[in-house]
Amino acid sequence: MFKQLMLVFTLLFCSCGCVLFAQVLDPALDPQINQLLVEGDSLRKAQQLDAALEQYEQSLGIADAHFGPQSLEVAHTNYKLGVFYYNQRAFEESKAFFITSLETFRLHDSSTSIDHQAKSAFNIANINQKQGNIEE
Length: 136
Hints:
With 136 residues, this protein is mostly helical. 65% of the residues lie in helices and 10% in strands. A two-stranded antiparallel ribbon has the order 1-2. Helix 2 (31-45) packs antiparallel against helix 3 (49-67), helix 4 runs antiparallel to helix 5 and helix 4 runs parallel beside helix 6 (111-130). It is globular. The relative contact order is 0.13.
């Protein structure tokens, strides 16, 4: 099954402790959504934050309209928005996107989904710790 997914990504931990992706190349995703997410990541890393946010929001709009709110495309986009807002230290916004991505990834039974569930949960816990909400 792992060979079928052929998920290619680089897992990074940024200096603030958030799990990031250097690239998302997941053949299970719609190619247009995948491209928007990769472009958004590149723009975010280049500190072109308005343009990055525009790419992520465009991805979310297309994914929601074409695949529905419980699709992997929406889950991946929500995760990316969580990372975006985390890097801006907008923890409440970030946490909301990570929670939504976690809930959506839980609906899918694949190794990719399980991996992203763990990353979303880790990031939620990290935000809770930063906010002093250790017991959440």
